[in-house]
Design brief:
It is a single chain. This protein is extended. The longest helix is centred in the C-terminal third of the chain and has 4 residues. The protein has 1 helix and 9 strands, in the order ββββββββαβ. The chain is mainly beta.
Length: 182
């Protein structure tokens, strides 16, 4: 039985208006060892850290002309008079969300069945649990026949635009039989 000790950490950098940020410097910091990894976002704002050991990390992104959250927020950013729920990017992650994980196992058997002839039979499987799903808590219903209502008018709470919820509701299983005659 085999189990992986590394994983990948992908992500996308966006500005406060939800625009993609290419050529940003992304940093992955291990909170356990202090080791830093660096990557630059592509034209779609995507980055990926490969072969990352399992552990606790902090991801930050920087680009000249952008303000980091460590520098504080601009004056008045949290002023209720300036908050527009129709333009805000709202995300919700339940506090009790468990961390997702993947279990992987494999085995194989080789047998010489005749001179210079080998049969190799193997099994590979994995099970993924608590994988992250994204959904819109404020998703608009479809128009009824003959109706031509705006998206906002069809939302459960029309005072807000999309409210993205992140929850660990996905899973996956994979099983494979591998055979070879040589």
């Amino acid at each position: 039985m085999a189990q992986f000790e590394t994983s990948a950490v992908p992500g996308t950098v966006r500005d406060p208006s939800n625009n993609l940020v290419p050529a940003a410097n992304a940093t992955l910091l291990s909170l356990e060892t202090g080791i830093r990894f660096s990557a630059t976002t592509n034209e779609f704002g995507d980055y990926q850290f490969l072969n990352v050991r399992i552990g606790l990390y902090r991801v930050t992104a920087e680009k000249p002309g952008f303000r980091t959250t460590q520098q504080g927020y601009p004056a008045g950013l949290t002023d209720p008079d300036r908050f527009n729920p129709l333009l805000a990017i709202i995300s919700y992650i339940p506090r009790e969300s468990p961390t997702g994980y993947v279990q992987t196992w494999s085995f194989s058997i080789q047998r010489e069945v005749a001179r210079h002839t080998v049969v190799d039979v193997g099994y590979v499987g994995n099970k993924s649990t608590h994988l992250i799903l994204f959904a819109d808590y404020n998703q608009a219903r479809p128009n009824r026949p003959g109706e031509n209502a705006s998206i906002q008018a069809r939302r459960p709470n029309p005072a807000f635009s999309a409210i993205t919820v992140t929850f660990p509701g996905a899973f996956g299983n994979y099983h494979a039989l591998q055979a070879r005659l040589e």
